[in-house]
Sequence to fold (105 residues):
Amino acid sequence: DPVAPSVLLFPPSKEELTTGTATIVCVANKFYPSDITVTWKVDGTTQQSGIENSKTPQSPEDNTYSLSSTLSLTSAQYNSHSVYTCEVVQGSASPIVQSFNRGDC
Fold:
């Protein structure tokens, strides 16, 4: 049976922003099967670039997978938008959506 992931979204640290870059990380933990899609949206617009995904091998304990997806922006890009959203879709299940508002961080 499919196992839905738990999804966590991490905004960039204030320390990183002072260096001119902004890295946002979306983590999907413990899902099965491995067929999963991550979509990044910034203020509702789907992002096509600056994204790197890395999937972990299947866990020997429970046969699940995990995935880390990173959206890389410049600090200026990051500061010019408000709402950052990570959508995780597994098969035909409804999306699991996590988002944050930059002003709340």
